[in-house]
Design goal:
Structural class: alpha+beta
Pfam families: Anth_synt_I_N, Chorismate_bind, GATase
CATH architecture of the largest domain: 4-Layer Sandwich
CATH topology of the largest domain: Anthranilate synthase
CATH class of the largest domain: Alpha Beta
GO biological process, one term: L-tryptophan biosynthetic process
Protein name: aminodeoxychorismate synthase
Family: In the C-terminal section; belongs to the anthranilate synthase component I family.
Radius of gyration: 30 Å
Catalytic activity: chorismate + L-glutamine = 4-amino-4-deoxychorismate + L-glutamate
Number of helices: 24
Shape: globular
Distance between the termini: 79 Å
Amino acid sequence: MSGNKKKHKILFLDAYDSFSNNITSLLTTLLHNVDVYVLSIDSPLLDPTSPDFHNRFRRELAQYTAVVCGPGPGSPDNEADVGLMNYVWQLTAGSGLLPVLGICLGFQSLVKYGGGEVKRLKRGLHGMVREVLHCSDSDCGYGNGDGNIFHDVKPFKATLYHSLCGDIGQHEVSEADWKEDRGGAKWKAIQGKCPELLPLAWVEEERENGEVERILMGVLHLRKPFWGLQYHPESVCTEQEGNKVIENWFKEALRWNEEQGRMVVEVAEGERLAHQATKPSLLSRLQVPVGDDEQTTSSTATTGETNKIWWERIGRRPEYRSVAVRLPHGVQVSDVVEELGLDGSDKVVVLESANAAATASARADVRGRYSIIAAELDEALRLEYHTGNEYATLKLQSVNGLQVDLSERVFLASYGGIWGLVASFQETRSLGSGVELPDLPFLGGFVGFITYEQGLSDIDIHLENRQHHRPDVCLVWVTKSVIIDHTLGLVHIQELYSSDTDVDDDAWMRSIADRLVSTSPHHQHQLFNDLPSPAKRAKTRRPSTSTSIQTPLTKEYEAKVKACQEFIAAGDSYELCLTDQTKITRPLSDAIPSTTSQEHKASQQRPTSPTFNRKQQQRRRSSSSLVPTTTSTPVPSSWHLYKTLRSRQPAPFASYLRLGGVTLVSASPERFLTYDRRGRCSMRPMKGTVRKSESVSTLEQAEKILHVPKEEAENLMIVDLVRHDLHSICGAGNVEVSDLLKVEEYQSVFQMITVVEGQLPSPSSSHQDGNNRKKYTGLDVLAASLPPGSMTGAPKKRSCELLQQIEQHRERSLYSGVVGYMCVTGRGDWSVTIRSLFRWDDERVTVQGQGEQDGQQSEEEHEVWHIGAGGAVTILSTPEGEREEMFTKLAGPLRVFADLG
């Protein structure tokens, strides 16, 4: 009987909180024989205006043992914020009544239904950990079996995430009655106000003026099987003793069902309106053949291959080869880039562990071990997608030195969106697990960037009309690359190839190896030998060539901080990661491809798809036509900007990209997501920053400054958000926190980080039907986690909507997005794009100036660079403090322009 025992089913009503999946995981793992299903509070499948709504809702509820009304942004006074919750409380005996637990917003909704009010706290308590004063059996005057879900629970601390509180008349109780030891007023229903709500738990918060605020933490409805908890039982900082409260609640729910003779209705899976908490895999959503399935679409594999259009044939069934050489002494990544001639290329990707060789104490700095340089990008397939389009564009410039300029739109409906297309492409080009491969992070695959706006689209946030058609996803399929192992001092020159179509030799690798072994450290020579000295530049520069810098206005930024805090106080967010942008205009520096803007315009037209036929092609120059700069004064190139930034702020996730019409120069210290070929995922949210100074020069000093309630709360909120994101793919019980609130040392700052790890479902559980359709990969986690929680706040969706409003719908673009790779082995590594500057090739401004010789007015085109900076605003923030933090983060990237003149 026990082996075939049917699982209980719990319905979770999701109010779009960023901690919901943590609750469903807690319920699943803690209550054991339970499946949790999720239904949004505004599900289109249950329209309250429909004539049969009540009958359909009751039929849905009849399938569950109990319901949990979850947390979320907003207030129960706003019907749209609680949606279906209101209809749960209205259930009556004989008309669908069942046990319910409300958490946070769900708790407040119950309090309102019970006659209480929901008011603002004197100051919000988001991310604060407090002792919960609950009614132990002797104090309350009732015990087990009386609905007391705190029965036999020892004292514990719990995490709070709220700025609103339930008022059942507690502040009308005298101090003497409140403090009465046994059966005191704090444990009794307050007659005349909320006679049906029995308080079960409190937090007594002492405020600055010495006044104690009585904050309701738990209630029991005396007529219906309804309970509520204001605190968050699922938070990583809520002590495990609090789990007993959830266990007790479920025991009470089962007891009530049994006493009332309530039987759960069993239905077929497809008849249930709610869905399981774990998202289906990207591969399972495809409506096109993938992997082994493709062989069923044609009579033979050969015929299927012939019928594929050009981009489908690229890179399929790859094989791998490599050559390793010793890295010459003193040679840096920048030297290798320059030796390969990539520093002046209009297509380049460098992912560098720039602090790998930095001098630091053993316990300081997060060090990267490897750096990645993509090669031969003119001959690499490029995938571009503009958020909101129904299609992605695949491009190929040349093949074996022959310019072909192929471009094809791929409509996304059958792929389920852009990430389905990427997943399908990657799956058919993976290196088999049975092949012996070197233990390197990247052997080949997609490399590129994803903008913040793509992340907004992924969480269903509408973007205002955008006045451009730049890519929000730009990935290049890298088959040739150079990997530098800084620990062993080795350079791996490697390539992916197909034995069916590619030349079977290693000539390219040997050629690169020969060049690298004789490379000298360029950094020992004059750093910018193509530039005049600063003194000479000062004498020769024309007025029109001066760099213009437009930073955020102090008062405006402080006003935005106050606006954030008003939303937080109103319960609409727990934390808002406010940002602003600095704009730098300066004379054109790099040679810009003249076709860049035309490429984006052309992508809006239906292109033709010529096939590979060398006889029909004319050999052209493999490089694009370049537009020279117009100023007579040399201007430091974007590569010079990168070298300067990496020397000033060596970071473990530095990057230099010129791809898809954008140039990115980044010294990011923050890893967003990494995953290995065995499905182990890790995220490192970074919140809490203090700049190094004479007074803060050691890790111990930084820890004293950062281990305070404000900084820890900032980090904790994002940690619980990241756990939620990972749980959505990894599933219940497969996420853990390995390093909580840890302070790390970097070149110029100390940062507080937390490491959250997850494990993807194993092949045995995801391949139940014998194919790869249900397989989860690291891409599933990436797609489910954008935009990075450390750049949004929590709850993510509502916070991003508010930030769009506060930031006046200004695009963050690459800033707050991610940069990284997904390898053909299943590995991947992505960093958050912060401490960075970027430039779009098609963004120019015209500047008026005077000619050097005749003094006549002249016009000159300048390029525009953007630097984003900001910080997490909480209820404990001050406008002045947030403004200072923003300018502190801005200083590093901005200083490179001053350094180079």
